[in-house]
Each structure stands twice: as C-alpha cells, then as structure tokens.
Amino acid sequence: MGDVIKNIKEFIWDVIGYLIPGFLLIIVFNLCLLPSIGIEDNFLIEWEKFSDYLIVIISYILGYVVYSLSDFKALKQDRLLDFLVKKLPKFESYFSKHKNNHWEKTFKESATFKNAVLFLKEKGYKDTDKMKINEIRNILMSRNPSMDQKVYTFMFRASVFNNISTILLVIISLAFIQLFTSLKGLYFIKTTPQFIIIYFIFLFLIPLLEKGKKRFFQIAMRIPLSNTK
C-alpha cells in the first residue's frame, strides 16, 4: 500500500511539474504575442466545447517543450562560457563559476560528499569513488525514504525557477528576432513602449531566477548526503 501511495504522489508531482510551465507559457504568449497570429475558434472543430480540457492537455504537452528548451538552454550556456574562456582566459575563473557543473566540482571536494562516499563504502557498496553525485544521492535516498518529500520539494522549486527563466528567455528571443523580421514587414510580438519595458524587466529577472534554480537544486542534492543512514 505504501508503494502505491508513493507512486501516486510521484505521478501527481510529475503532472503538476509539466502543467505549471506549460500553462505559464500559454499565459505569457497570450500576453505578449499579437492576436493576429492566433488560430480562429472554428478551426476543424468547435473549440469552445472542449476549451477547458484542451487547455489542460496543451499545457501538459507544452510543459515537455519548456523542459526540453531548459535543457537546450543549459547546453548552449555552457558552450558559450567555454567559448568565452578561450577568448578571454583572464576571466576564466569568473566564467567557470557560472557553468552548470561548477558546483559539482566544488561539492565533490566538500566533507559532506567525502563522508557520504566513505559511509557507502563501509556499508559494502563498491566503486563509490567513481560514482557521480546523482548516483550517490539515489542510493542514500533508497536507504532513507523519509527524505523523498524534502528532496522532491526542493527539486520542484528548482524546476519552477528554471522553467520560468526559460519562458522569459523565449520571449526575449522572439522580441530580438522581430528586430530582423520587421524589416520584411513580419510582426508577431507586441513592441509598444510598455512591452519594451516589460521585456527589459524579463531580461533583468532571468539571472535572478537562474540563481534561485541553482540554490534549490543544490539543496535538493545535498539533503540525502547530509543525512546518511
């Protein structure tokens, strides 16, 4: 019975985790995109009859899109930082701190990680020195299921921060693309003075959201390694 409840909880977390970013993307698109690019209500079916269900379904699907874009963003960010390190070696330490895997290298040198590895060795686990932080964390979570709720909570918060950052970056990118398409008379995003101010606010919020993501993600990763049983 306990496993059934646990699986139901994980399923709910999974559904909510994709619904929220997908629904937020719809809201932001509805706010920033020009109404003229929308599809008419009578396209193929009577959309009004199924509107409530369709919003949920589309939000869930778009949630996967947002997660994929978040992964793509992280990949391109690291590649950009690698490029900047090569071009500006004097600032290597600064750029390296902003890479997604920087905290892992630092954390592996911490007493918390070393004690967790030693603990698993004493419990008979092999090759712990070669394991990644994720692998160590998963083993410790399986030994102490009471930590699951805390870990999932902080991982969920990290995902929310990350996905909001991605959505805002998508809007900023669309506004930037329109600078070029407008030369051909193609407009798809609002660029009135009020919205230009909003886009600058988005641009300011992105690095703050990234910091929040890293903070909660690191907490989620540290919890199991700080509570060895």
From TrEMBL:
Transmembrane helix is among the record's keywords: yes
Keywords: Membrane, Transmembrane, Transmembrane helix
Ranges annotated as spanning the membrane: 12-38, 50-69, 160-181, 187-209
Name of the protein in question: Uncharacterized protein
